[in-house]
Amino acid sequence: MITSTSFVLAVPSLDVSCAFYRDVLGFEVREMDDDGWRLLVNGACRIMVGACPDAISPRNLGDHSYFGYLVRDDVDEYYARVVASGAEIVKPLLDEPWGMREFGVRTVDGHRIMVGQEISEVNAGGVTVVDLNYVSLYIDRFDEAVAFYSRVFGPPAYVESELRGWNMGATWLTVFRGADGPGGNADPRNIEFAVQVAAPAEVDRLVARLVDAGALVFSAPRDTRMYEPMRFACVDDPFGVRLDVYCTLSTGPTPSAMP
Q1: Do residues 14 and 49 lie in contact, with contact meaning Cβ atoms separated by under 8 Å?
Q2: Would you kindly state where each structural domain of the chain is located, as residue ranges?
């Protein structure tokens, strides 16, 4: 029967490593009987670090540089702390299909650590958002907007005197007259929404259709990564709305910055 667990790590410099674990990851640094060792403690986690200046750097170990998965009860706050410290994040904070909200960080020595919390615990004290639906645009040039989106998505499937609606898979895009919106007679500003398509090639086709209708390309179609690997493009319609068009990729490209 295992009654406790501790990690044992070789590090090039005890002072540098202990400062990182203390200041960035919030560990307490304890002396040990041997001057070449320190004990790092954070809650139920114990890490023994030993000074091994001539050992292979963990940065040269590839995937073997991963050594632990730390389960927290405050992963969002902890992630914010680690990011603010300037530490190298090897995986951003994400909700994963296996039920964990997690991120990865590389230590000053090159070791990699995963940190997570069960999604059910993250959402237990608040509201669990299951989806985002019903994009609504209030456009002063209503007739022009209806003509634009009809050229891109076809005739509206829902029609009332003061609105038009297009079915977008599991949700709806609705265009209202600008006078009915919170800003009165005006076109939208600083609005962006994303349209997901079924295949990567469809990103390019939809962008071409948007441009033909009068949109301007902000970011041409390319394979990239934000949250997950995807084929992505971005255009601005004539009314102040930015449209993202994307399709997720089963195998991700080398991560690059989004526009």
Answers
A1: yes
A2: 6-123, 131-188, 189-259
Mean pLDDT within 53-61: 88
Which pLDDT tens digit goes with each residue over 126-156?
A: 555 566 778 999 998 999 999 999 999 999 9
- Tell me the fold of 131-188: 2,3-Dihydroxybiphenyl 1,2-Dioxygenase; domain 1 (3.10.180)
> First vs last Cα of the chain: how many Å apart?
52
Q: Which residue has tokens 């209806």?
A: 146
Query: What secondary structure does DSSP assign to 91-121, as a single string?
Result: EEEEE-TTSEEEEEEE-TTS-EEEEEEEHHH
Residues near 161 by beta carbon (within 8 Å), at least 6 away in sequence: none
Domain 189-259 has CATH 3.20.20.80: no
Q: Report if pTM > 0.90.
A: no
CATH class of 6-123: alpha beta
Tokens of 13: 């410099």
At 184 the three-state DSSP class reads coil
Proportion of the chain above pLDDT 90, given as a percent: 63
Q: Nearest CA to 114 among 155, 181, 69?
A: 69
